[in-house]
Amino acid sequence: MAQHTVANRAISIRLACSAFNISETCYRYQAKLKDENEIIAHHLIELTEQPTDWGFGLCFDHLRHIEQEPWNHKRVYRIYCELALNLRIRPRRRLKRHAPEPLKEPIRPDQVWSLDFMHDQLSDGRSYRLLNVIDDYRREGLAIEAGLSLPALRVIRTLNQLLEWRNKPLAIRCLTQQCCSGPEFISHEFVNWAKLHDIRIDYIQPGKPQQNAYIERYNRTMRYSWVSKHLFDNLEQVQDYATEWLWFYNHKRPHKANGGKPPLMAA
């Protein structure tokens, strides 16, 4: 209003500021872009070029906890919006569901492991499967096993390899045959292996995947990060990429459940 009055009423700046009760410093202030803004913009563009599923939260957590940058989240978010890096939010479908049993959150490592399968195709059209194993406490990825077929004996072999360097869990959470595409988790070999190692098997209720929410969210992260983005020629390429991504997930990728820190950086 003061600037409009000076420009159109031909009065002095001092009189206009006095009339509108503002200081001349405020009147003459002009915002100056700092060189740091360009640095922040450069970091944000780099972070969103490769893992395109990262939103503002993951980008800011990476800058704060991995890069150790001190920038305020409001400032970073303003630049993030100016660069139009916002992800499109998919509207949620509201479905009426019966209340499932509550998901119990573990309080220490190696208390509960979760297992699940994923499916995709190679470039020649052959289907392959991925066995995912995570520790529910800090959402740490323990193993990703790729194969055209993953019977119960392959599942047991993967778990035995984990037990060579990890403490055995008290329980393993997995799906029943009614929820899954195969009977690996209810086979006699798998059940007998769990009894032999004194490990409890927690089957979720049929039709209630939210009871296995930790690994379902992990599967979604894998799907959007690399499984759906790359077309592999053979299983060796799948296994090599999965191993590299698993290290990145545990050491570099921020996780909201851990306060914005990667699983192996969380206390």
Structure description:
Strand 4 (171-174), helix 8 (188-196) and strand 5 form a beta-alpha-beta unit. A 5-stranded mixed β-sheet has the order 3-2-1-4-5, with helices on both faces. The model has no long low-confidence stretch (mean pLDDT 87). It starts with a helix and ends in a 16-residue tail after the last helix. It is 41% helix and 13% strand. Helix 1 (2-9) crosses helix 2. The chain is built from 10 helices and 5 strands; from the N terminus they run H-H-H-H-H-H-E-E-E-H-E-H-E-H-H. The longest helix is centred in the last third of the chain and has 17 residues, at 235-251.
Quick structural overview:
By secondary structure, the protein is of the alpha/beta class. Helix content is 41%, strand content 13%. InterPro entries: Integrase_cat-core, RNaseH-like_sf, RNaseH_sf, Transpos_IS3.
| Uncertain residue ranges | none
Instruction: Quote the CATH topology of the largest domain.
Output: Nucleotidyltransferase, domain 5
**Rg, Cα atoms, Å:** 26 Å
Please identify which CATH superfamily of the largest domain we are dealing with.
Ribonuclease H-like superfamily/Ribonuclease H
Tell me the number of strands.
5
Structural class: alpha/beta
Sheet with most strands: 5 strands, mixed
> What's the helical proportion of residues?
40-55%
How many separate structural domains? 3
Cα-to-Cα separation, first versus last residue: 54 Å
Strand percentage: 5-15%
Shape verdict: elongated
CATH architecture of the largest domain: 2-Layer Sandwich
Following the backbone from N to C, one meets helices and strands in this order, namely: HHHHHHEEEHEHEHH
Overall mean confidence score, pLDDT: 87
**How are the strands of the largest sheet arranged?**
3-2-1-4-5
Tell me, what is the CATH class of the largest domain?
Alpha Beta
Alpha plus pi helix count: 10
